[in-house]
Amino acid sequence: MEKKLQDYRKSYQKGELTRKALHHDPLVQFKNWFEETEQNKWVEEVNAMTLSTLGKNGYPQSRVVLLKEFSEEGFIFYTNYNSQKGKAIEKHPKVSLSFFWPKAERQIIIQGDAKKVSKQKSDEYFYSRPKGSQIGAIVSNQSQIVESRQIIENKLVELNNLNENLKRPESWGGYLVKPISYEFWQGRTNRLHDRFRYHLEAGKWMIDRLSP
Question: Which residues contact 31 (CB under 8 A, 6 or more apart)?
């Protein structure tokens, strides 16, 4: 069945991005946009981001994960190391992170190298989670084939009934993405969007305007 989408159009006119307005540090620029989006409640989960990896079969794969921390060190998210994304990162640690905030008509794309955070860091975050989320991380063999939902539910009930502290699985923890480039995109009229890219040269961030 054919469905044509030529008439799906949106005019972007909520703002502009100029070279003068950009902060020289891309992390500060990211923080400014992140906090502005959060304060204005332009999205429900401002920390939702698309993580793109190169799969073992050679095809790229993207999925939405949640950013849990960002600093000068990089961007941190948590997952099962044996999941599709975990195995992909193990083989190809170069990844992309994308934030799209439609009400702000803004997008940020970050490229960087991913590596596991320390066990202590993963422990700190795991034990700060609600018990249900801890159980979920233990119960799910993420990305593995499962015969039925009932198997998962049974494991959930079994662990929920235990009167003992849960332990973080060795196969679950965080990744730190160290950026090598940032791109900030602001929608503009007539599809002539503002795009600026930060990239490292000799340890210094350089900024280029990109054609829309």
Answer: 70
191 is catalytic: yes
Catalytic residue among 19, 63, 191, 209: 191
Q: Is the pLDDT of residue 75 over 80?
A: yes
Specify the DSSP class assigned to residue 104.
G
CA distance 67 to 114: 13
pLDDT on residue 163: 65
135 in Cβ contact with 166 (< 8 Å): yes
pLDDT of residue 179: 98
Dist CA 111 CA 177 (whole Å)? 8
Distance separating alpha carbons of residues 17 and 35, to the nearest angstrom: 17
Of residues 53 and 203, the one with the higher pLDDT is 53
**190 conformational bin, left if phi > 0, alpha if psi -120 to 50, beta if neither:** left
